């Protein structure tokens, strides 16, 4: 979520370019740029992005990758892409990309899939029951069978996150953290599988 969205300043498609920068950072580094265990702290870090956008040395990003991320995760007035996607396509990080042949290019990785429910290409994690926060009632969600593959799916890189717990000790500077509202967060425990054949 771009800072202008969180600050309710009004926004346009430029906020999507912020999201592209956040996704690019996560794909290249292994965790989100403004990571926190608490959504309120994450939002505070986004709003104060100048103090929190850092690149870990172990990520070994090229100068072009860092430059593109910085030009996407910045003030809306200076954000790359505000004049259209061609601005981003022209960035040096995309040098050599044949945009006109994009749909004809071979994929760098072609996963072997044995069926609709094959998950062999995903890491296995122990199931953990997460405590539900808030006191509001559970919201039930009815899912179609095709959607069941994605229940609880999230990208996890625990090795990268371990080092963050100590490096984000500056969280105290934001003041007390309030309990997040459960209105905008859904718990997997609220999923009703009994009617998933609808």
Automatic annotation (TrEMBL):
Write out the catalysed reaction. Answer: L-seryl-[protein] + ATP = O-phospho-L-seryl-[protein] + ADP + H(+); L-threonyl-[protein] + ATP = O-phospho-L-threonyl-[protein] + ADP + H(+)
One GO cellular component term: cytoplasm
AGC-kinase C-terminal domain mapped to chain residues: 95-165
What does UniProt give as the signal peptide span?
A: none
Gene3D superfamilies, A to Z: Phosphorylase Kinase, domain 1, Transferase(Phosphotransferase) domain 1
Superkingdom, natural source: Eukaryota
Q: GO molecular function: any one?
A: protein serine/threonine kinase activity
Q: Which UniProt keywords apply?
A: ATP-binding, Kinase, Nucleotide-binding, Phosphoprotein, Serine/threonine-protein kinase, Transferase
The keyword Phosphoprotein is annotated on this UniProt entry:
yes
Protein's name in the database: non-specific serine/threonine protein kinase
């Amino acid at each position: 979520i771009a800072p202008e969205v969180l600050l309710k300043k009004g926004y346009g498609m430029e906020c999507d370019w912020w999201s592209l920068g956040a996704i690019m950072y996560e794909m290249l580094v292994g965790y989100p740029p403004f990571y926190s265990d608490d959504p309120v702290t994450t939002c505070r870090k986004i709003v104060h992005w100048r103090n929190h956008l850092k690149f870990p040395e172990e990520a070994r990003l090229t100068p072009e990758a860092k430059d593109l991320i910085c030009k996407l995760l910045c003030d809306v007035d200076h954000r790359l892409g505000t004049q259209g996607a061609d601005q981003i396509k022209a960035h040096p990080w995309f040098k050599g990309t044949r945009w006109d042949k994009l749909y004809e290019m071979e994929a760098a990785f072609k996963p072997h899939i044995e069926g609709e429910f094959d998950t062999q290409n995903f890491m296995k994690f122990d199931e953990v029951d997460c405590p539900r926060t808030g006191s509001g009632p559970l919201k039930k969600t009815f899912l179609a069978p095709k959607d069941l593959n994605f229940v609880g799916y999230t990208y996890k890189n625990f090795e990268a996150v371990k080092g963050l717990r100590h490096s984000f000790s500056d969280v105290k500077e934001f003041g007390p953290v309030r309990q997040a509202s459960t209105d905008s967060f859904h718990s997997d425990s609220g999923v009703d599988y009994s009617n998933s054949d609808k």
